[in-house]
Amino acid sequence: MVWDAGMRDEQIPLLDAWWRAANYLSVGQIYLRENPLLRRELVAEDVKPRLLGHFGTVPGLNLIYAHANRLIRERDLSALYIAGPGHGGPGMVANAWLDGTYTERYPSVTRDAAGMTRLFRQFSTPGGIPSHAAPETPGSIHEGGELGYSLSHAYGAAFDNPDLTVFCVVGDGEAETGPLATGWHGNKFLNPATDGAVLPILHLNGWKIANPTVLARIPEAELESLMRGYGHDPILVSFDSTDAAEEVHRRFGAALEMALDRIADIQTAARENGSSERPAWPAIVLRSPKGWTGPVEVDGLPVEGTWRAHQVPLPSARDSDEHLQQLADWLRSYRPDELFDDEGAPLPETVALAPRGDRRMSATPHANGGLLRRDLDLPDFRDFAVDVDAPGSSDAQATAVLGEYLAEVIRRNPRDFRLFGPDETASNRLAPAVYAVTDKQWNAQTIPLDEHLARAGRVMEVLSEHQCQGWLEGYLLTGRHGVFNSYEAFIHIVDSMFNQHAKWLEASSQVPWREPIASLNYLLSSHVWRQDHNGFTHQDPGFLDVVVNKSADIVRVYLPFDANTLLSTYDHCLRSTGYINVVVAGKQDSPQWLSMDDAVRHCTRGLGTLAWAGTETDGERPDVVLAAAGDVPTEEMLAAAAILRERAPDISTRVVNVVDLMRLQSEDAHPHGLSDADFDGLFTADRPIIFAFHGYPWLIHRLTYKRTGHGNLHVRGYKEKGTTTTPFDMVMLNDLDRFQLAIDVLDRVPGAAERHAILRQELHDRRTAARAYTREHGEDEPDIEGWRWHG
Amino acid sequence: MVWDAGMRDEQIPLLDAWWRAANYLSVGQIYLRENPLLRRELVAEDVKPRLLGHFGTVPGLNLIYAHANRLIRERDLSALYIAGPGHGGPGMVANAWLDGTYTERYPSVTRDAAGMTRLFRQFSTPGGIPSHAAPETPGSIHEGGELGYSLSHAYGAAFDNPDLTVFCVVGDGEAETGPLATGWHGNKFLNPATDGAVLPILHLNGWKIANPTVLARIPEAELESLMRGYGHDPILVSFDSTDAAEEVHRRFGAALEMALDRIADIQTAARENGSSERPAWPAIVLRSPKGWTGPVEVDGLPVEGTWRAHQVPLPSARDSDEHLQQLADWLRSYRPDELFDDEGAPLPETVALAPRGDRRMSATPHANGGLLRRDLDLPDFRDFAVDVDAPGSSDAQATAVLGEYLAEVIRRNPRDFRLFGPDETASNRLAPAVYAVTDKQWNAQTIPLDEHLARAGRVMEVLSEHQCQGWLEGYLLTGRHGVFNSYEAFIHIVDSMFNQHAKWLEASSQVPWREPIASLNYLLSSHVWRQDHNGFTHQDPGFLDVVVNKSADIVRVYLPFDANTLLSTYDHCLRSTGYINVVVAGKQDSPQWLSMDDAVRHCTRGLGTLAWAGTETDGERPDVVLAAAGDVPTEEMLAAAAILRERAPDISTRVVNVVDLMRLQSEDAHPHGLSDADFDGLFTADRPIIFAFHGYPWLIHRLTYKRTGHGNLHVRGYKEKGTTTTPFDMVMLNDLDRFQLAIDVLDRVPGAAERHAILRQELHDRRTAARAYTREHGEDEPDIEGWRWHG
Q: Pairing mode, if any, of strands A589-591 and A395-397?
């Protein structure tokens, strides 16, 4: 191994200058409110009253950044930097200020002493910037709050970006998380010819908040085996606090160079020589002390190289003379006078190795994906419409119809649209249509039996919802489009990733220079009402409850109730930016209700009366409103409406369907919210409302509690009653079936239960008989079909 | 490698008989409703109308089970079987029926033809049993619905069970999930002397639902590296469909034997020779065809060894003569006449190798942990009380006080209580107390700098919420006790695991032979209101919304508002069984409100008036109810009450605190629910209620929408407004601060805003000034303290 292949001797002081400058600026952010350049003696009042931030991981991040800079320039690379240890926010900010991007984005943070003071003061302070890499940080697509997603984001960014190199720093803390541990396998899905490169840099600084890390405490041979087992060819490089800076730069520079050489070889083999072998991609394992270059000992206890360096190594710098002196010594150890000019601007030598313009990692448009995003070339969704001569007269599988549409979207957008799923794309019926136009991208071994696998393809399938979500986030954040399709129950696996992405979008919308990225679109199928055969574990519609807690500016929830409403909804979602669109739709053969023209009108409003299903007289308020959201609830409600129309024609009904759930909220709570007047006009202010809902019933109450007629609202939904049974038994178990809904109407319309006592008893008996039949025969009673909607 | 060290030739036919019998019974469950023994020709009507279940993984599971049986008997092992590919439910049921446990648990499922018919019919059918391994399955502690947790459950079961061997079958599908991928590192935390053994058996059958699996499609050398990197010494054994049964049994038997020999050696070295080295534990990699022993080809397409064998290999057995004939041939290939007697009972040779009594894996009490659970030896929590002379007169850190109590719990229960956390036990202030009595268990490398690490200890810390949750579940399900402490925001990472455990508990409560296990106790600290410094990503109280969706029989939510109420709450939690207790508590210095006697009284009721804080006159209803749940909201509400008492004494107030959130629900919705009369008595039916809530405000509406006075309820809580700021700015951002709460009262008590216009303006100005001060100085205005509660 030749350790210093390409580095020239004169580059070493330049690398070291950047490293010292970035470290100095990082420490400054954590500690200083005045005296940024240490041009006078440091006094207690120069130190912030509240010391926040994390120093431990920063020097390693800065070292990598400095060396990446050199090689970006020398090789004219387009590169993105992902800081998995996102606590190292001060480092990322420092690098962006050094290369000038920070001042371009935030002109008040000038490249002089005043700007440096502002840079320091704003850090982790009210009205300032977060302590982690965040949407506010130039060059970042990766928030450092919740850990575990750096590799998934890196692969997502690299897909379809053949000219991009992603430096992905993996912290040894986050390396213990599940999502990160499976994230390594992204390399089985990366195509060296058509995708970019990910260079994982496992940064072992040995400690978490208060514990050692697992990967830092296994023998070197075991760690190397692990990296090889992940499919990497590891380059191990270790430093301790006694290594001279020159030695550090020579060895790390050579390691990075070697890694980039190998990537170049791999890409040449794939792109010019047609190799289709999965290569052993390089990965760097960088072992360095936590809190490197910081205080060795504080109050008699070792700090550098220990967990005590995780956050603020000198916690009493403002209150203790000794700590203050140590802080001054520490800051001066970076020799700021050699790094910044009299005005406080970085000296030319300090930034001599930095790339220029968009090649700066903090300025790359890949980290501000909205700049690169182009609108999708979408077909006319009406071309995929299901014919509906009369409501309920034909059956179709909604997701299969959507699959035909998505296939055409894929065909027209071969470079910037992908479909992600945890081995459920076929199960959710998007196949076979999508596999007629593309394949699943798979760069592991193949055998002749395989179907629809290819080295490059638009469908990404891995049995990890975390990977699907993380890849899609990375893909969107770098300016592309996509859909995540999954089983409804198991999307809870990524609740926390959803939360974090929603927070990212919310915070990004306040950052003026961030351009809007494409919405993150979920398609949840195999939903609660049709998981009868898989049983209780597969029955959970509660993701919607998680979603509606996030900012109304970001989240949208749609429950299209047939194929045409699903098509219209998805067309809207794929055109939108800045949102998270959650769409729940069925995959089973189900009645179709609206013609395409009606579907478009209905979806445009987001909710509305199904006039053909109710019996109200023009100009008079109905006796009852029958509302529904979701395909199965709407089918049940329409069947109940038919029963009532025929058997209790004296009851005047209005049938309402809700596709856009956020319409139910008040207009001050959500931009889609109906005005109170419109709400009252549709639902009435004083009539009973029987609402059949796809999810947990109380969600409807939570959305409507401020409405005038809320006291009249009676919601049926999934109340956590489930088991292995039949589809109709599932709705009966939860009192959402047509018979119970009709009973609910009779019970709530004044006088109806008495007038229709016989019907009521008959409905009750039908339920009892249906349940008994199912228990006896293991299937639904055939003549329940006779009680369905008929026009 | 000696491949058949201990197996005797005459054992091979016995192993094969069990394997064939288990496979036969598994296929029977998927297909048959009549003619269970094939004593007459198979006709279409014998086949179920709806074919459900998953055959693909079953033969491998059954092979492992058969061979484990042999070695359990020969070595008198206590063993637990975890079927990671839980879809293989029919296999687990078949094995339990063969060894007699099934009939002992379900006497109607007799060991004869009639019982076999019942066994087949009940499978995956309404009123029957789920298609996955489930609470209903004897011997299972691991649901097969959501994938990824088998290894975590296995390690949880093995901790503190030195005599237990856990055979943990890992499916190659689930191996792609994040939680499973990090689950391998459990071996760094296992002590070979004081814990049991986990034998992972990675079962590579090559396919998921519709895709190959990653680990089946990497070169053998890479896979072996991966296993070594995980710290295992792998034993690879591969079969294809052409291998003769004898060959299969010889080789797999020898592999299992070798693995158990190594485990025995490791345990001897640790237990008798005092070795403290982390050993390379054995792991088996079993490569076998998916749908092994099933139809090779169906309708001209290959099935055995492909993804087509995942579920039902012959989908048209009832409708197609050809499929029916194939099914008959398949079933007869197991030679049922040689396996079962004339009555349908297993022949002695079929079950000759099965262990007896509790040694049967389906009968082990470790899989019915309630049998082994003993009550904890708990100290009197009153001994840890904080002195409270007058409400608000002293400060304490609630979780630090709890830490003192938990330390004593640990001291008294050295073998069956553990504390789990993702590197946050110290940060959440349970340290230093707990480390005075125990250490963190850590079997990876150590260095002299380490503190509180030991080969055995009661605290388990790994930076993976999934591992913490999975380990604790495994520990509880095998009859022990524990607490999971975590940051509030990031507990969302395990939303889906929480859901699945709640479903397991709910389903278990319906299984008569399952004894109750200890509750799963969460301690969520570093909560939303005190994550001001970490910023927006760390602010999320929404786990409570996920929790309350689950069955009211299972979930409990507590928001103790000081140290003494936390102690009283936790004493209750640690005594309970069958629940999931979610406790949110602060770790910062905060005012203490109740003496221990008052705290016990208050917590026993779960909610109640803080009479000392209100100004209502006996016998008259107050003008307004000031309610709060959570420590920060209560502090703010009490400050508001003090302001009003002093400045608007004409307003008669009642202050209510809610510790047990479920008391707010109706009594028909939750067993803790207050009656409407009691609710109205406390909150009034007609007075305004200003409610300061810890979490998202609409959760309170969702819990109370049926209450008479709901229309008068005005809730303040976290409305997703967050950033990097100060604690008081956080409450101001969300309108939960004392000034706004007092304004809310003035605005809602009729006439008060007019009467107290000056006060209202002053409060408004205070808010504006406080926000400005924080922006200016980066800290809270010091004299906000002057507006705190004073008695």
A: antiparallel
